Amino acid sequence: MGSILAERTASRIVEEDGSFRTKMLGIAAERDDVIALGRGDPDFHTPRHVVEAAKAAIDANQHHYTGPTGLPPLRQAIADNLKADYGFDYTADEIVVTAGVQESIMLTMLAVCEPGDEVLITSPRFTTYDTAVHLCGGVPVPVPTYQKDDFALDVAEIEARITDRTRVFVLVSPNNPTGAVTPPDVIRQIADLALKHDLLIVADEIYAKLIYPPHEHLSLATLPGMKERTITLNGFSKTYAMTGWRIGYLAAPADFVEKVTETRHTLSINSCTVSQHAALAALTGPEDDMQAMYDAYAERRAYLMEALTKAGLSYGAPGGAFYIYTNISASGMKAKAFCETLLRETGVMVFPGDMFGEPDSDFIRISYLQPLPLIEEAMGRIERFMADRAGAAA
Ligand SMILES: Cc1ncc(COP(=O)(O)O)c(C=O)c1O
User: Fold this and answer.
1) Domain spanning 4-46+288-386: which CATH class is it, in words?
2) Is the CB of 38 under 6 A from ligand 1?
3) Is the CB–ligand 1 distance for residue 171 below 6 Å?
4) Ligand 1 atom closest to 40 (CA)
């Protein structure tokens, strides 16, 4: 018998089936040689000067509430940074600082999604979008991308799914879990599509600083007519290795920011004040640590692409982020069985495509968020695992 509370949970609450995750953690707990290439949490620590700024903020008694949209100098620094790095023309009053991009996603959906609205989402996908849309009574509609295109978005796939209930398109570039970067010409086509079908756009650019040549990033809201219909999301978790600080933001026209401020206040009043001071230091301080992290990711990516091919595994070549979405059908297993067996037999932890909205997936997401020697060790184990499978099939 369940509790009265569990029985009376509102119908909007979506319960995730956590059994697979729990099973994986259980298997991992029994080994002392696990190499975790699952989560999207950098192995690097937050840059020292950022940590020091947070300590200084604590010592200076910065323990109080801030305004709901964030500390004015931080909002200004974000606006300046968005202009300098991407060409946006947001002002400080067009920024809302939130507890990670995660809270920006919920705030955004609360603001734009009516019950019954259809929300198109780049897929395979970061499924927080599905949950946020469900919580608002909307309907998430995946827009598929394919390995043959390196998981690049095709505007025809978006347009084919537009109905009279479609309200929003969620553009995630670079995407999680595929690392796919939507090229500038496709971004321009998406802008045309948004105008043609009167769509709102959510542009999640959390990985925009992690793009590898020759891939290029273009921010949709910088295109003519786009700022007024786009909510741009970005944050500090990935670029500055600040996942636990819970700090991110949305950028959108000032009148929209005014409209959502009370809702933002209701969610958590303000983002952690100490983390806001840390974020300000991240934006205004030296960039050497970020560059070193980027260089390490680039090296790991190049290594993995070659090593996976050697192991007989194909993938969509990732243009950005720190993931490789790898096709494991050569193993003769589906992704969940693959991940479970790989972990049990070799201690390498990766996530199945099923966790990214693709049931019965043939893909795994490998995060290259361990030092290169550990990734090399993991690849050695994967290679032997694949060779054993080929041997068994022969
Ligand atoms: C595409 C995407 N958006 C948002 C987030 C949430 O990030 P944050 O730590 O800023 O809440 C993630 C985290 O993995 C992500 O992959």
Assistant:
1) alpha beta
2) no
3) no
4) 14
